[in-house]
What we know:
- By secondary structure, the chain is mainly α.
- The protein has helices spanning 3-25, 28-35, 39-45, 49-61, 63-72, 78-95, 97-109, 111-122, 129-142, 151-167, 169-176, 184-202.
- The radius of gyration is 20 Å and the shape is globular.
Amino acid sequence: xxxxxxxxxxxxxxxxxxxxxxxEGARMQxxxxxxxxxxxxxxxxxxxxxxxxxxxxxxxxxxLPIGINNILEKDYPFxxxxxxxxxxxxxxxxxxxxxxxxxxxxxxxxxxxxxKIFVEVLEHKDNNLIARLTExxxxxxxxxxxxxxxxxxxxxxxxxxxxxxxxGRFMVENIILKNGxxxxxxxxxxxEKEVVDFILNAIKP
Length: 205
């Protein structure tokens, strides 16, 4: 088995183990079993669970910021950038539904560990996503294209509108959609447009 393929298999197995069980519930032996190798070989690549966690989680978290940065680099109108960011964000969560549960669990059980990784990813000099979003929003405000709004408020509005249905999925499915004849996937398909329209209408001057 080549080193590269072994490392990739370890990463994939560790990703599933951490996302499904969280840091506290994940076991190195379980990861080794998923890969089909012995625990000693796993420790050859990653000597501790901490080191493996620190290697895996940034690669999970960076998927979304990379995509958003790609959108910000495009020569699109502000409204189109907001629309694409919302579609990307919701699409990512639809494809990776366990990530929301993983992040919430880790923030409850060991917030310092995950917060440190988030800061490193979001404020990296090559990626500084929050700074780029802040600059973009401030320019739109100064140009009179949108209402005066603090960038952090608009950023939180976008995140919360995209993320909440996944956090409260049980409530959405079993209470809100119970008698509506709409399943969660159909609801989220409509939700993407609703979120975009809501945000853009809210910031119109």
